[in-house]
Amino acid sequence: MTEYRWATNEDYESLIEMANRAFHPEKHTEDFKKDTSPESFFPRILPKLYQNIGTAPMHYLAVQDGKIVGVVGNFDLPTMVAGEKLKVVGIGTVSTHPEHRREGHMIRLMNDSIAHAKETGADYLVLGGERQRYEHWGFGQAGVNPGFELNDWNFGRIFGKEASFGYEFRKLEKTDTEEIRASRRLRTSEETYVLHDEEQEYNILCSMGATPYLVKKDGAFAGTMMYFPSEHALGDLRFTEESEALYILNDFMKAMELPTLKVSRIPPDRTALLAVLSKYAEEGVLMPCEMIRVLNYERTIRAFLRMKCRIFSLPDEELRVRFDNGERLLIGVRDGAEAVQQIEDGPFDLEFENPTDAVNYFFGNLGFITDYGCEKRERTRLLRPAFLPLPYYQPACDEI
Fold first, then answer.
1. CA distances (Å), 44 to each of 15, 37, 203, 254, in order?
2. Cis peptide before 395, with omega less than 30 degrees from 0?
3. 297-309 pLDDT per residue, tens
4. What is residue 380's predicted lDDT score, i.e. its pLDDT?
5. Under a CB-based contact definition with an 8 Å cutoff, are residues 84 and 303 in contact?
6. Sequence-separated contacts (24+) of 264-267 with Cβ below 8 Å
7. SS3 for 197?
8. What interhelical angle do 152-159 and 245-256 show, nearest 10?
9. How far apart (Å, rounded) are the C-alpha atoms in residues 19 and 17?
């Protein structure tokens, strides 16, 4: 007999041990203390969640004979988008005990998690995972995540091989209270950011194996960034002077003795930073951020369309859309501002029968060149390049 229930604080170590066993069986030691220590897999890559007992009740469990055999994390990610607070749920740690797979636990856990999100008024859910696997639950790839690659030849040609601009770098430590607060101020100045308790600010910068670095110039705070050493990559660049970005990256590559450096997760509203990187990087690509499932289209689309209107000048136009959940919306721009409201009847320019198609159409990163095969009227073909994609963005520090 399987019991499906929400975890309590008493389940904290057991659910970590189960997730570690499912995701990293080759690292599983059969020693409970080691497998639930801060150095084990999940506490190490997601300290904001798994070095924090307060997140235990955010897990939905499958339990057999007192033993946890399946886990789905349902994490609160209250998110500010263009001044509007959205209720967001991060789905993560989706796992089944290796000895209990193909028993239907994951289907039940995911279905119940989505139902709970709907009941509690979530605007959308976000997760990272295999596309075809999670499309089954209505998730679609979303987001505009530009990625760049720079190399020492780039900087040698731009500045000269020996150029240095006086920037200094060291690992950010948990005791760097003032610098962490300064980084937090930069993070929350962006158009999109997740609301976190201040005491978790350092831990979120250590997500997914990142090492946070402090940037200084003449002894003064100049910014922070997340460095992923296994990939020679940076994410969530937060600089006090974005026009200095190329100088900072030049000095960082020299300090770390890197021949190449990848940079991604640049917010779409950081136009000055994007301009510098797109002009000088050897390569640039446009990737999605995460997968999302929208539950409240009116609130979600309004917020991200407002964000786009703040970044770009959009023409006045509108679409009439019917969504899979029954919402009927007029979506458009009037006098340069977002205009999203409920309507009663058609005709509709677009009608979506499933949530994945809706996410792809409005939030897919290639929305300016494709409609992802969605049914459309001729008018939508003309409007799409100006309106889409909506600038969904998920910072690297908030990956789940």
1. 15, 9, 10, 28
2. no
3. 999 999 999 999 9
4. 61
5. yes
6. 264/145, 264/146, 264/147, 264/148, 264/233, 264/234, 264/235, 264/396, 265/145, 265/235, 265/236, 265/289, 265/395, 265/396, 266/145, 266/146, 266/237, 267/190, 267/191, 267/192, 267/393, 267/395
7. coil
8. 130
9. 6
Q: Are 267 and 274 in contact (CB under 8 A)?
A: no
Judge whether 149 and 283 are in contact, CB under 8 Å. Answer: yes
Local structure of 353: helix, strand or coil: coil
What CATH number does domain 146-287 carry, 2.160.10.10, 3.40.1110.10, 3.40.630.30, 3.30.70.1170?
Answer: 3.40.630.30
**Is residue 250 a contact partner of residue 165, using CB atoms and an 8 Å limit?**
yes
Q: DSSP for 109-177?
A: HHHHHHHHHHHTT-SEEEE-S-HHHHHTTT-EEE--EEEEEEEHHHHHHHH-TT----EEEEE--TT-H
For residue 227, give every residue at least 6 positions away whose Cβ sits within 8 Å of its Cβ, in sequence order, or none: 210, 211, 212, 213, 233, 234
Q: Domain spanning 290-387 has what CATH number?
A: 3.30.1050.10
Domain locations in the chain? Answer: 2-122, 146-287, 290-387
Identical fold, 2-122 and 146-287: yes
Q: What is the C-alpha separation between 384 and 380, in angstroms, rounded?
A: 6
CA atoms within 13 A on the CB side of 80: 11
pLDDT at 143: 93
* Among 83, 48, 62, 52, CA closest to 2: 62
Taking alpha carbons only, the member of 1, 71, 67 closest to residue 32 is: 67
Measure the CA dihedral 181/183/188/193, to 10°: -120
Per-residue burial over 267-304, b = 16 or more CB atoms within 10 Å of its CB, e = otherwise: bbbbeebbebbeebbeeeeeebbbbbbbbbbbbbbbbb
What are the residue ranges in the chain where pLDDT is below 70?
375-385
Find, among 42, 41, 19, 36, the residue nearest to 95 by Cα: 19
CA distance 143 to 145: 6
* Mutual angle of helices 245-256 and 271-280, in 10-degree steps: 60
pLDDT of residue 27: 84
CATH code of the region 2-122: 3.40.630.30
